[in-house]
Design goal:
With 89 residues, the chain is mostly helical. It is built from 4 helices and no strands. The chain has a single domain (17-88), classed as Rna Polymerase Sigma Factor, Chain: A (Orthogonal Bundle). α1 (17-37) runs antiparallel to α2.
């Protein structure tokens, strides 16, 4: 007879930092993009501002647990990125 292997029920896959970041991006991207798109007439600039905001705050996002602080950090990154882009024009 064959011995059956014990199943590992109840074990959940380990959550990684990348998975948590992806969840945060999925949750907040539409709102951050909407905010960025209201600040410019260009079609590509809101995409770049939003992308840069998430990339620049990636390290801070790992340690933030408070949603208000997280959104504030992202909005500040969009605003400062918009000022930097406007100064380069």
């Amino acid at each position: 007879m064959f011995a059956s292997r014990p199943t590992k029920k109840g074990r959940r896959p380990m959550k990684t930092k990348r998975a948590r970041f992806d969840i945060l991006v999925a949750r907040y991207y539409p709102a951050i993009y909407s905010f960025a798109s209201r600040s410019t007439d260009d079609l590509w600039e809101p995409v770049m501002l939003t992308h840069d905001a998430f990339n620049s705050t990636r390290k801070q996002l790992r340690y933030r647990r408070d949603d208000v602080a997280l959104v504030t950090t992202l909005l500040n990154a969009v605003i400062s990125g918009g000022f930097c882009r406007a100064a380069l024009r």
